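new request in #modeling-help
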Amino acid sequence: MIELPAAAPADVIVAEARAADVGCFPRPDQYLDLVRAWHDDGFELCVDVCAVDYLEHPDREVPDGVTPTRFEVVTNLLSMSRRQRVRIRVQAGDEQPEVASLFSIYPGSEAMEREAFDLFGVVFSGHPDLTRILMPEDWEGHPLRKDYSVGRVPVQFKEAPGPR
Amino acid sequence: MSDPTVRVAERPDLLTAETSEGAQELLARTATSPAELGREVGSVVHLEGHGFDPSDVDIERHDDETMILNMGPSHPSTHGVLRIMIELDGEFILRAKPVIGYLHTGMEKTGEQLSFVQGGVNVTRMDYLSPVINELSYAMAIEKLLDLEVPERAVWIRMMMSELNRIASHLVWMATNGMDVGSTTMMIFGFRERELILAFFEKTAGLRMNLNYVRPGGVAADLPDGWQDDVTVICDTIEERSYEYDQLLTGQPIFRERMVGVAPITAEEALALSVTGPLLRSTGVAWDLRRTMPYLAYDEVDFDVIVGTYGDNFDRYAVRLNEIRESVRIVRQCVERMPAGDYRSQDPKVTPPPRARIGESMEALIHHFKLFTEGFHVPAGEVYSAVESPRGELGCYLVSDGGAKPYRLHVRGPSFVNLQAIPLLMRGGSMSDAITVISTVDPIMGEVDR
């Protein structure tokens, strides 16, 4: 089990998930403070920021005290000195997901946050350049959302369109 | 735009005000926010958290004395469809911004439509120069969720194939980098030696690239008869020729002129930008997941983590050249110590039965049918597995809801993240140095855009 750094917000929920992966579940307003606390505690590298759309699983399993929302932002931090990883899962909201940008702490999170914005529509407040990164600028919608359907190309010589 | 008489040059904010057109691009400085401007000139918020230095952003030149130039998306030296917008003062780069997405094919979305069995075909095409390592990180994530034990022989085969793939990938890097600095000889040499490895891949997996060789639970096929001889020949040849590359390039004045001291990056800057792989190691940080967070059997083999000192182009070249030799060392140990046994898990839920069993066993037929129609179910949960790809930390974040397809598949591509170092590396350099910067960062666009 991992110890929260002393500077972390007091009531962050820590849970040990499967496969020895440790997760912290801060509220969106605690997120930035928690990441800063981890950063000051020796987690030098922000490995990954990504989002998950839990549209199909509104009542999924989360630790007690956490209210699951549709969008979740998952941040992976790495401490090279301690050879340890920590995963932070923020419940970002249902309709208009928004969390704070980590740019002021880890400038390297910039592209990853842009990607999460582009593909999920999660707004990262305080991000310097929150524009689409993978999709064209005039694209409508956020393709990795679960209510964004997969495009189908009619297949020649077949009656029904396949599952893809 | 509502008023056609207003020229965009006078009101650059109009570019983004009414349409989103141009929003991703490098805009005039007056239209760019200070924080974004800081990023484009490569100013890095340091780890102490002071915020960027405003004097870094201050560019004294007027907008009309500089030139914003497009490099790419289709340019021979951008290694694919990378587009970099550069603001130039004469020949020197004031700021730069990579614009990506030209190769975006929605592979993460595709991954959600394919079952865990089929998914390997998808991920192997992301970083097309290191397919085995892509598959490995994906398969390891599934195995973590399944809590599946992989036979020892499969572990060693995976390790050997990963290292061969790392050599092949670094050889392509040597080749293209040689091309970028004007050595067509190195171009030919690199691809010539890589062909040996691809031929061995073809012999083993049936395909030269995009192998889909590493499967959940093991590998697709056992090593072919006489593989020891093939691999030993590859090792001998490449080790010997790596010294030829050394002779060809390392001391060569033109090459050194382009590489030594050009585009340095410090360890602090690299860490702040989340840079990993040879780019980070060239700054002297000995961070290699194979050593620091061992997976497979890397804790049982003997190899050195190569680090540089100055973090310049030359260090990045030297790190990669020496990593080829270290990988050869690992492959030789794999040949010597390859354990006997199964090359894939014998769990019938994840491994298809041998063809001969299908005719005689009802269970085998059922398992075979289930596996290739529906696929196997993976317990609900989320997992992050990371491996060291030739370009840095390749992570796979997998969320399963208990079904036969991933609920969410996210790949943390090292090239995608490393690309953020480009403004920093390019700043202040000349246009010709920009070519070597792109080259030594080594972005693979398939993985950047996914």
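bot summary: Confidence is low (pLDDT under 50) at residues 14-19, 46-55 of chain B.
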